[in-house]
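My hope is that you will study the record closing this message with an eye to the fold:
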Amino acid sequence: MNWANESSAREFILLGFSDRPWLQMPLFVLLLISYTFTIFGNVSIMMVCILDPKLHTPMYFFLTNLSILDLCYTTSTVPHMLTNICRNKKTISYGGCVAQLIIFLALGATECLLLAVMSFDRYVAVCKPLHYVFIMNHWFCLKVVAFSWFTGFGNSVLQSSLTLNMPRCGRQEVDHFFCEVPALLKLSCADTKPIESELFFFSVLILLIPVTLILISYGFIAQAVLRIRSAEGRRKAFGTCGSHMVVVTLFFGTAIYMYLQPPSSTSKDWGKMVSLFYGIITPMLNPLIYSLRNKDMKEAFKRVMTKIFFL
């Protein structure tokens, strides 16, 4: 393949905010703090969900997978970004760029599908409580999670192949912090409209279909919650589902902005900031939203910490 022969020995230059040196240190501090909180928060959720038997339910099984996703999602980009900020020559090898692109796309697509699965779980819990144990059984949960991971990586391979096959005519400067589809497409010296159409189709499948299913699920949930006579029951239902909707809005809103419009129409600086938001800020906020607004999670964390302290 010509693109592989042309680029295999080359590096990409990640421009980031190189034209604004005064932003380098604030960005480094922001990334370091966000990444630290992301690691601590998601590892804490994983630990509590695994160690506390009371959280061995479908909801927390999906939440554990979401934490694993977010942890890997940020790790695929942030450590290299932190290293590059401290270097004069901000580069990434061709192989490193390909790996970063595939992993970032795969985990992002998997998270889209997993959030849809989590909304279905909440729909069944609120609207079909008597059938919850039967519908959300162990094997069904494993199957939908496996489907999410498999589909996410399949989508990534397809989109990455289409992006990397575009001729670049020796262009190496990626006007971004990491290797992402819109930024790499801008390096192409050929007409990208056919490829953009194909990528748009895959993005619709991965972004719009899950978010539509999520909105439908929460439409039914809202109707069911409003019929609950107990004010405490309504508050608990809205609290649990409300935190999920915050995550959905933050993640899907920024991802749709980036992937469902032509790269040429995206402001380069605004595109960078949006990518930082859904690639770094949202994974940091997920643990805070799910733990601080979740009474069961806070009580489980206390129980686990008590056990560890006495042991």
The chain is about 75% helix and 5% strand. The beta strands are 11-14, 91-93, 173-174. The longest strand covers residues 11-14. The two ends are 58 Å apart (CA to CA).
